[in-house]
Amino acid sequence: MNDTTQQTYRVLARKYRPETFSELIGQDALVRTLSNALTLGRLAHAFVLTGVRGIGKTSTARLLAKGLNCIGTDGSGGPTLEPCGQCEPCLAIASGRHVDVLEMDAASHTGVDDAREIIEGVGYRPVSARYKIYIIDEVHMMSKNAFNALLKTLEEPPDAVKFIFATTEIRKVPVTILSRCQRYDLRRVPAVMLVDHLASICAKEKIAARPEALAMIARAAEGSVRDALSLLDQAAAMTADALTPEMVADMLGRPGRSDSQAVLTAALAGDTTTALTAFANAYARGAEPEMLVADLLDLIHLASMHAAGAPSDDLIDSDKQTVFDLADFGIARLGRAWQLLLKGHGELTHAPDSAASCEMLIIRLAHAALMPTPGDILQKLPTAPTTQHTAPSPKTPPQSAPAETSTQAKHQNEAPAAETSPPDQPETHAAGQPAMPQSLIDIVTLAEANNEMLLAARIRNHVRLVGLQQGRLEIALTGNAPDTLAGDLAKQLGQWTGQRWLVSLSDKDGAKTLAEDAAEAAAKVHDAITMDPLVTKIMAVFPGATIDAITPAASPEIDPQNADDTASVDDEEMSG
Ligand SMILES: [Zn+2]
Predict the structure, then answer these.
(1) What are the tens digits of pLDDT across the range 293-318?
(2) Quick one: 66 and 170 in the same domain?
(3) CA of residue 82 to ligand 1 center, whole Å
(4) How many Å apart are CA 418 and CA 444, to the nearest integer?
């Protein structure tokens, strides 16, 4: 930045400082309230102006001081929102030398002594003006004692004294003080309004500028008229030609908005190549990756707001088409992109190579854009109720005809899928004609159908099947099995089937218990689901997500009595 820039900056900034409230851009609510208070003669003894840094609190305070003390060009005017700017009080206040208008910064005067100074001064009449006015900036920085001293004054303020407080942190100002003030909130000036303001100044100053360039300045100013004007100054000092978006982008180290629009539109359409090319262009022109991501976030926010039904009045013209197009991606996709970008933005600052990180982020964004949203996934899921809890096995991959597996499983002894298949078919225990059990799971089902839940549980946990034929059951038992188990089984089987049963203990090892099978199946389900390409992609889309539980879709076919069948799979906590 050279001397010319500095000079121009000072000139323009001062030249367009608002001299009346009507010139105060974007603070209509404040002006209306003040105007009403003035007209109705209800001006408070104390005002508090609050708003973010750089939004014009101090100049508003001075403007107010002028309005309160202006006597008009003929010397007979009263308090006004249109200070003349020419009378002695107006001129003195503008140059900061009015004896009755005292400005102080609480950030550097926080002690009780300063407050006492104020109070001592309050006792005196104004020297020449209508009101003695104390402007205290960053009032929240005052000490507790200073607040207490001030409070006493505010409780019984002399007629000729006014306080104007300014603060960026209204919450830190004690309520006892606030309750004695008229509060005015200064708003960030909407970008649309800033663009108009800049355009009108450009017209007056004969600065040629493309609207997109002014839009870029307005966005960078983040609602501050002062910042917008200073940026316009800098930009205008760089060239005698028309201001272009590229020029402003260079100056700000930001991507051109068209670059951001191109990156985002391509990425959300899943076009990685185009998105990366657009980023490379922006980067080559000096755009900071972090700024680009911030700009993408801004666009996503605007598009989401639009998709959510917000009016488009606040959109800058050059943004409109892109925002409308982006909104068509829908709130779910935009929300997902927002999450990705927000996380990526945080990571950029720690990354050794922020450009590479930004490229990775764009690739991820484009990749995620091709993935279905949770809503899409729900719609695509097969409606077969048993799909979710059918254990995958080599014969039954998770996504192929799972409905068939569950019915077949009933007849496949010891097939992992059998454990988690739906309960036995109704005729087994509803028709009164007990079928002969074909498998261990059939025996468990029989036990449960006859309400022998303890026995069923013991079979699951302790019985290793060695052989099963008509009326003959050969088993091995786990070490901790109850001694009576084999006998109980023989007795109950006889009752359930109306046939004699021989249950013998084998010295062979036998198969795994049903409980072991179930645990294994559950682990397989977990692995299969974790490895499933769709799930992998979902996990990639929601970084940091874990599989906490695998729950089957609600199935009308699940017999409540057999809820235990699936419980070991369903309720198991699985953290990825
Ligand atoms: Zn005046």
Answers:
(1) 999 999 999 999 999 988 888 888 88
(2) yes
(3) 8
(4) 12
- 283 is in which domain, residue-wise? 257-370
> pTM for this structure?
0.55
Ligand 1 center to 129 CA (angstroms): 11
Residue 198 lies in a domain: no
Structural domains of the chain, count: 3
Element (H, E) at 440: helix 440-449
214 assigned to some structural domain: no
CA distance 233 to 217: 10
**What CATH number should be reported for the domain holding residue 286?**
1.20.272.10
Residue 375 CA, ligand 1 centroid: distance in Å: 64
Q: Per residue in 468-480, pLDDT tens? A: 988 889 999 988 8
63 alpha carbon – ligand 1 mean position (Å): 10
The pocket of ion ligand 1, defined by CB under 5 A, consists of: 70, 83-84, 87, 90
CA of 5 to the centre of ligand 1 (A): 32
Q: How many CA atoms lie within 13 A of 142 on its CB side?
A: 29
Q: Does residue 524 share a domain with residue 424?
A: yes
Nearest to 41 by CA among 63, 68, 61: 68
Distance 120 CA to ligand 1 centre (A): 28
